[in-house]
Amino acid sequence: MILVSSCLAGHEVRYNGTHCLSEKIGALLRDGRAAAVCPELMGGFSTPREPAEIQGGSGEDVLDGAARVVDRAGLDVTALYLAGAYKTLEQARAVGADTVILKENSPSCGSSAIYDGHFNGMKIPGSGVTAALLRRHGIRVLSEEEMQEWDGASCAQG
After folding, report:
1. Mean pLDDT across 1-24
2. Tens digits of per-residue pLDDT, 52-70?
3. Closest to 56 measured CA to CA, from 73, 41, 38, 70
4. What 3-state DSSP class applies to 34?
5. Buried b (16+ CB within 10 A) or exposed e, 70-103
6. Residue 71 · residue 54 · CB < 8 Å
7. What CA dihedral angle connects 86, 88, 94 and 95, to 10 degrees?
8. Distance (Å, whole) CA 150 – CA 84
9. Which of 82, 76, 1, 80 is nearest to 36 (CA)?
10. pLDDT of residue 150
11. Would the pTM of this model clear 0.85, i.e. be above it?
12. Which residues does 93 contact at the CB level (< 8 Å), separation at least 6?
């Protein structure tokens, strides 16, 4: 079993109430080889919500207490992002997931790129909070772009 971002599964859970449906992920869900999660909703957010970005580093830095997640209105929402990350880790463990496919660029789910913290549309290398936490616990994290090249071998086992 793998976990996938709910927005990639077609659920309208992104900050602006939209989704980013991936047909390949839809097929994994229909075949019962994947389950959908939204770390932000699991952390206590609702949809829609203010967009947020990591300020002062990446998801790794947030986990270490050296950076924070702030929404566009200036509210520190770090605690909600941390709560969602840990609940996603619990869910991954509960279903025995060794791979998680997350939405790139998100302050929660970004696996190789996130926004730079200035709400200017610029991206920097780095992981979101959930992606960083999952990796710290030995779970493979892929973006929707990376999963297009992935053979899905671990899906066949669960």
Report:
1. 92
2. 999 999 999 999 999 999 9
3. 70
4. strand
5. bbeeeeebbebbbbbbbbbbebbeeeebebbbbb
6. no
7. -160
8. 26
9. 1
10. 59
11. yes
12. none
Cα three-residue angle 32-48-90, rounded to 5 degrees: 40
The pLDDT assigned to 156 comes to: 31
Can you give the residue ranges of every domain in the chain? 2-151
Three-state secondary structure along 62-102?
A: HHCCCCEEEECCCCECHHHHHHHHHHHHHHHHHHCCCEEEE
pLDDT of residue 23: 86
Whether 55 contacts 69, CB under 8 Å:
yes
CB environment 12-27: b (16+ within 10 A), e (fewer)? ebbbeeebbebeebee
Q: What percent of the chain has pLDDT over 70?
A: 93
